[in-house]
Amino acid sequence: MTEMPNDRDSRHAMAEKAAALVKAYRQGDPDALGELVEMYKRPLFAFILRMMETQSEADDVFQDVWFRAIKNMRTYQHKNFMSWLFRIAHNIIIDRARHRKVEGWADPPTARNDEEAHWAQMLPSPKPGPDRVIIAQEMGRQIQAALAELPPEQREVFLLRMEADMPFREIARLQDASINTVLARMHYALQKIRKKLADLKETVS
Amino acid sequence: MNCRSCQQLILLVLSKEANAWQCARVDRHLRECSVCREFRADCIQAEQAVRSLSPEPGSNTVDAVLSYGRRELIRRQSNTRGYVHFDGLTMLRPAWLYGTLSIAALLAFLLIMEPVMRPQHPDVAHRGIPQSAAPSELAKVEEWPDVETYLDELIWILDATYLDNIASENEKIISWATTEQLAAELLAWEESEI
């Protein structure tokens, strides 16, 4: 019923591949960087987008994260490239929030009409029936709305876990908190999101 | 195990961080608890929904990153031309390496030659002690740290000589006294014989 712990081998394999690509790039192979960006662009950008206000701002932060990573790649010593990358993103997002003198972190976009269209574009495309597309769109909107209402720490835990597939132990290190705190944050976040999804389920049924 | 603990363990199981014992505990609880079964199902559904909605950065953004990466690579290669690379470590440029080695060799030479090049002790020069005997004589000089001690030592030697002379004079007196006594005894013996 539950996944066994040895399923984490794929995560190790990915970390090893990233380490090999970093080494290749340091030795002068520009294609290795292309592969690295391709590996991490989706979870990284999704995380940044939901922590920032707009798409253009998310693009800027995405670039900054990679620029900083590339600059520091020569001295990179971490075991886990993804954790390192998300730590850079976490720091840049906090810096930007401080720079704008915003209390706490940036609020994610509320569900506006253009944002709804944006979410709709990102829905799975395996040619489902129109009703399934509508349900998925609605689910995306509900999750987006629930995320907007979450405190920044809970939102970050949820996104790092769900988008980046980051283990809770890594998230705890990144947030400088205990694993129990991180699990509690995730639990609260899920409770709110589940409430939104429950409303949707009732409507659909 | 209560539902809250089970739900936290479910989170660990889904993130593949739970050990076999924790997995077994969750399985046992889920068999009996419909609330936690629903929680688990919702977690999986939320995860799938979030991941299926994952946006991607614009192609221009990715291109900018890649071109920056290429530029940085070229810049690094031109800056580090002449350096020695060893698995991520950048060693010194050869010119700097040779320069450092030359300075180290010069310092080592000066350190070795320092005793030879040291100026002579002024006391040694003043007393005219031969160059070859300098270290041992210098040791003697260093036993008499000042002139007073030196003079004391000298007076002691002179006193000793004087006392020796006195002693030899006393011996003479003693021997003389013995001779006189002997002569007197001889005279006394001659008179008794006569």
What's the short version?
The complex is a heterodimer of chains A (205) and B (194). Chain A has 205 residues and is mostly helical.
Features:
heterodimer; A: 205 residues; mainly alpha; 0% strand; B: 194 residues; 2 strands; 78% helix
How would you characterize the overall build of this protein?
Chain A is mainly α. Chain A contains 9 helices and no strands. Chain A is elongated. The relative contact order of chain A is 0.10. In chain B, 78% of the residues lie in helices and 2% in strands. Chain B has 8 helices and 2 strands, in the order H-H-H-H-E-E-H-H-H-H. Chain B has helices at 3-14, 20-32, 34-52, 59-79, 94-117, 122-127, 134-143, 147-193, and strands at residues 85-86, 89-90. In chain B, helix 1 packs across helix 2 (20-32) and helix 1 (3-14) runs parallel beside helix 3. The mean pLDDT of chain B is 75. The interface between A and B is large, with 58 and 47 residues.
Give the number of DSSP strands of chain A: 0
DSSP strand (E) fraction of chain B?
A: under 5%
Summarize the helix and strand pattern of chain A as letters: HHHHHHHHH
Please report the number of helical segments of chain A.
9
Order of helices and strands of chain B: HHHHEEHHHH
Cα-based radius of gyration of chain A, to the nearest Å: 18 Å
Outline of chain A, from the CA principal axes? elongated
Unreliable spans of chain A: 1-6, 106-128
Determine the fraction of residues in helical runs of chain B and give it as a percent range: over 70%
Can you give the helix content of chain A as a percent range?
Answer: over 70%
| Number of H- or I-type helical stretches of chain B | 8
The largest sheet of chain B, given as strand count, sense and whether it forms a barrel, is: 2 strands, antiparallel
Task: Name the strands of the widest sheet of chain B in spatial order.
Answer: 1-2
Number of strands of chain B: 2
Structural shape of chain B: elongated
**First-to-last CA distance of chain A:** 27 Å
**Amino-to-carboxy terminus distance of chain B:** 148 Å
